[in-house]
Amino acid sequence: MEFPPTKRTPHANRVVIRSIYEQRLNKLLEEDGQEESENRAREEEEDAEEEDADEEGEVDPLAHLPLGREDLDKLYKFQLISRRITQQTGKGKIHRQYALVVVGNGDGLVGYGEGKDDELPRASDKAFAAAVRNMDYVERFEKRTMWTDMETKLGSTHIILRPRPVGFGLRCNPNVHQVLKAAGIKDASAKVWGSRNPLNVIKALFRVLQGGNAPLAMGDGFGGKAKKLDKGSGLRNKSAVERDRGRKLVDLRTY
Q1: Helical H segments across the chain, by residue range
Q2: 95 pLDDT exceeds 90?
């Protein structure tokens, strides 16, 4: 008879009974084991429900994400902005916590999210959940850098991104560095002109990195054109560059 590990005993146990009443005892033990397993499963479900709901009865922000716990633990998570915000009302000021989190798998998938709550840890969890849901792919050249020079402007923040050769590394603004690292871009340089407000820098960078923000012959929705290589077009992928040049792109790595 085998007994699985429990909360009190973390090790599995096995009992072998050799007597005249072996069959009868084994049958009784099996029935008891089934009842214990059912009770244990019921207790685990109740514990999971209690964990999902906090003291106020609200659901945990990380409870209904499309990825499991193991996949979430493998992601890069950078909390780039955390501050106290104030809302002025007729009855006074309401103070809350704000967090902006960047999430990526280091292989072309990256996103950012924002969260607000009375406590910073919960605001960070809300931002992390929003970032996981907002993750999108970034086109990369040789899975290490961008395809071409990119330029965008958001408010008074002006960003220029340039591809660099193998081994160059990331030489750029600290917030840009964390976003590119989460996206899996290893060789690039960037210059931020004008305002270096972290919020504007991060939003402008995501607007220019993730394709689809600027459809052909249309603006980008932020009051600018997000100029990269062609006016009004998004970041081009490998097939588009090959069609434009009329030849295949060959990987020149020697290792």
Answers
A1: 22-52, 69-73, 120-133, 174-183, 198-209, 238-245
A2: yes
